[in-house]
Amino acid sequence: MKHLMTFLFALTLLGNDNSNLTVMTDSTAIANCDAEIIVSNNMASKTMPYNEMVFDMEIKNISSSTQTYTLYTDFLDEDCSNKYIPRETGDSNTKLGVTILNVPNNTIELNSGKSQIFKVKLTLLDETKQKSWTCIEVNAKTSACNTVSRPQVLSVYVPNPNED
Fold it and tell me: Which Gene3D superfamilies does the UniProt entry name for this protein (predicted)?
């Protein structure tokens, strides 16, 4: 609520003052640090073939200035199954091991308009459920912004290796 009051106060100041006064209440609201994260060949949905698999990814700085991005992943609870192998009713997403490769400390500095390739490696865990889906959001943040505007969601089906 504090930010909302400050923001309304800033609007009041700007609305009643004819000078070029600029009031910044929250740097994340006005910073331009957008990036786009994509998966190569539009293959964001795959079946896990063995104990591990790798997604080829790319991050592109679509902001107007050089940014340092920290890559991270989150598991989503949403249903990300597809029409060919739908998620069972009442089933929840499973967990996999996730490692970001080719990016020291998961940090990338990119000039405006530039991009870099990286990989996301997924591995089966002891608790990974077979015949289940998982949804993993690959995202990035900067010190100037909390998250980027265009993350990538990876949808992975973990089959039973004993079935065809």
Answer: Subtilisin-like superfamily (2.60.40.1710)
Task: Map out the domains of the chain as residue ranges.
Answer: 1-30, 32-158
pLDDT for the residue 76: 92
Measure the N-to-C terminal CA separation of the chain; round to a whole number of Å.
55
Q: Which residues contact 15 (CB under 8 A, 6 or more apart)?
A: none
Average pLDDT of span 130-159: 87
Instruction: Give burial (CB, 10 Å; 0-12/13-18/19+) of 61.
Output: buried
* Fold designation for 32-158: Immunoglobulin-like (2.60.40)
pLDDT tens for 78-113 read 888 777 777 776 678 889 999 999 999 999 999 999
Phi-psi region of 102 (alpha: psi -120 to 50; beta: other; left: phi over 0): left
Determine if the pTM surpasses 0.85: no
Compute how many other C-beta atoms are within 10 angstroms of the C-beta atom of residue 85: 13
Put the strands of the sheet holding 45-47 in their side by side order: 45-47, 152-158, 132-141, 67-76, 107-110
